[in-house]
Amino acid sequence: MKRSPLIFHPAGVFFALAAMVAVILPWLWLLPLADPGQAHVRLGIFGFGGMAVSGYLLTAQRAWTGAEPPLPTLGLATLALGARMLALAEPEAVWLASLPLLVVALAILLPVMRARRWDKMPLALVPLGLVIAEGALVRHQIQAAALPLAMGALILAVGGRMIAAFLIEECRRRGLPQRPAARTWPGLAMMGFGVLSSGSIGTSALAITALWVLRTAWTGVGAWPASRMLCIAYATLAAGLLGIVAARVGMLPPLAQTHLLTMGAMGSMVVAVAARVSMRRVKDVGLMPLTRHWIALWLIFAATGARCLAEIATPHHALMTMAGIAWSAAWLLFLSAHLAALRQPAPFPLLSAERARSEPA
Q1: What is the biggest distance separating any 2 CA atoms in the chain, rounded to whole angstroms?
Q2: CA Rg, the chain, in Å?
Q3: Segment among 58-67, 179-188, 331-340 with least mean pLDDT
Q4: How far apart are CA 324 and CA 310, in angstroms?
Q5: What is the C-alpha to C-alpha distance for residues 19 and 330, in angstroms, rounded to an integer?
């Protein structure tokens, strides 16, 4: 059966919007905004991150429930984009942005509830949590510094499970022994303990969590390129966690640690997952990243390094500009492949190669 164009699927339009938001993120400071700092945080965490999360969850939701979202994909994407524009135009009227985002969050949550997929509820609740967190940020009920930590926890949990699932499928395809999927809750619990404990024990817990992340990422060293790209991106979370450790002992400025999590970990994970939609699909091999996908990933790493150095070096203006150019160039490269794919029939599955078929009994 012929598939509809990718633009009508969540992974198509939501990932495109997330990348477009990413392109303009470094240049918000040039606009005459009342509070460019808060606008940067809101557009980065809730715009870029929120759209990427929504695209992934709306895609996964169909596999979980077997049902389509209650509203058309393009309608949900329009609501998400409208919410971002309202947040920039009327930053204090948080309810203006919250209402359309609440519709998107419920479109993700309600089908999962109706299907009684209680095991998926923690993930399905994430968009609703983002709506609440954005409102709390504007009302000064939570600190902006808490948001990158929350996204780091999400990357740790979801990324770890995703890597395990893709590597298991790859082993099936290659006829290799399959290892049982490692549980993500020990790493998540260790990270939570480390974040909440400010002493040497908590700092040690964060360092151990970083090693746990690297161990998970190491499983993809010999994997095929798409899985290897995902594991490389996942490994950047370890750098973010070690950045927290370095900031606690005064070796790294807090903003450098923040950008290791947001630009480094969140940015690279989004591109590694979203790029899977427009990768080449090679028979008996699986997904093959395009050259521009790899360049985009390394540009994100370069942008992260330049942005962190800008917090240490003086003068920092040239490094800030280099970071912004590298970051925007990475997402323009991603878009050059993704936008071309939007008019093509959507591949199936969207985020992985065709499932390996079991041998007949």
Answers
A1: 68
A2: 20
A3: 179-188
A4: 11
A5: 9
Please report which residue ranges of 66-154 form alpha helices under DSSP H. 73-89, 94-114, 121-124, 126-138, 146-154
pLDDT at 356: 47
Provide the pLDDT for residue 357.
46
- Distance from C-alpha of 317 to C-alpha of 214, rounded to nearest angstrom: 33
Are 315 and 7 in contact, with CB atoms under 8 Å apart?
no
CB 242 within 8 A of CB 302: no
Write the single-letter amino acid at 320: M
Residue position matching structure tokens 């919410």: 83
Q: Would you give the DSSP letter of residue 69? A: -
- Residue type, position 255, single letter: L
What percentage of the chain carries pLDDT values higher than 70?
Answer: 95
CA distance readout (Å), 140 to 50, 88, 136, 137 = 20, 17, 6, 5
Dist CA 271 CA 331 (whole Å): 8
Decide if pLDDT at 174 tops 80.
no
